[in-house]
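Question (not urgent): is this output format expected?
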Amino acid sequence: MGARLSTKRQIKKDDRRKKPDKFDKAMDDIKKIGILSCCLVGIMLVVSLFIDPNESYAAVVEELPASFTSVMEPESVTNLTEMASYIRYEDTIVMTPRRFSGIPTDGSKISNIYCMDRKLWMAGGKTYNKDKSVIDETLTRKYPGLIYIIEHDTLPENILNTQLGEEETLTYYINQLIVWWYIDIVNGYSSGPTDVGEDVYYDGPGHQYENNLTVAEKTAIMNDDRYSSYIAEVLTNAMAYNPGTMTPSLDNVDTSTITYTMTDEYIETSPISITSNASANFISYTVKTNTNNITVLNESGIEQTTFSPNERFKLRIPMTEVVNFKINLDISVVGSFSVHNAYFYVDSKEPSEYQRALLGQIVSDTTSVETNIQYEIPTGKVVISKQDSVTGAGIKGAVLSITDKTGKEVYRYETTGEDIDLTLPVGSYVVTETVIPEGYQAEVTTINFDVVSGGTTPVVLLNTPEIDVPNTGLDAGIIYGIGTLIVIAGIVLIVVALKPKNAKER
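Got this back:
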């Protein structure tokens, strides 16, 4: 009895060893979670190495405000009475306005505002109204590089060496200098970031974005070890920047390259591509036909009307659209384009006294362009007969393939014994017999033919019946067997005939 109890206690003890208690299990789970957390943190650190920590001050928005009220940065931010200054060289101090921003009618703060005309007044509390685009076609000079400057308005970490709280002011300061110098380049006051250009400000009537930086100021910028290389790089890129045309167009479609396939019910075009002079800004296009009978398809043959620029479309045209041996197509293609854009703003009351302003936000403008694909597809008929060359009767079971001049198969069918009457676009074709019916031989398997506008082309493919030749293989075997027996019999007779002769000789 005691031995059995001892054995039971030992079994329970072993069971406890095999089954960890809840505390140990929880500790294991915590360890696993800790290891997983460390791995996730490591991954985040690696990813962070490839992400720019600086966020752009600009933003791409769908719509810019129609007007806003200007706001000046408080003087106490930079400890300067009116202007911010970070670049000095010899006796020259390069100054820009204190940070200049705006508040729209809804009361939310919007981005920085850059001054265009350095010689004109600038102030807070002014109402500014939206004016022309920097790439407006009506401008005497266009300023596409301003879009690039706004899009790249974040300074790299290596030059953000100011005291805490001044980074935004420094960013505004450097970008304002770049804006002014870029305007000077466009207006002919210097040819690039290392050319100081004219020596004096332009001070004539009708002053508009003219000569904002003096020779001394440009010289000071070029001699500044901290900012000069960055300013030169941004200016170079701004001058080369192309935001996309404000007058996009869709390229003409070369209809001569379109090929066709057909069934008894419809003709279908090969895939058609739509391209544009503004491919970088091309969003999508929509295809509409001149009749509901014509169906627009994607390349997989599924009905679809709106496509991305890299997609192609096809047209399925019912045979009912063939009128007087012609198909008239009038296809409307509407392309949508997006162009990043920036806009000037002007003082609502005294535009000639106060600076024009450049709002430091990019808007995604969308415009549409329509073009038409209008052309005529002339057609003709071909009547194909598959005949017995002896009787002239129609033959069933032959498979015929029709290909166009490019080698593309446009139609395939199996003969029924009746002639087939096909409507095809005008052109050169080849019909090939790919399967010959049993009991026939093809005289020719390929025939070239032309389809002419409004005409009918007859094509006849002849098959010759195979001759029923008797099977002589067995008869020949019998003959060979009989011959062999005759030879054997002859040998036997000779042997028999020789025996008496030999007996007499003995």
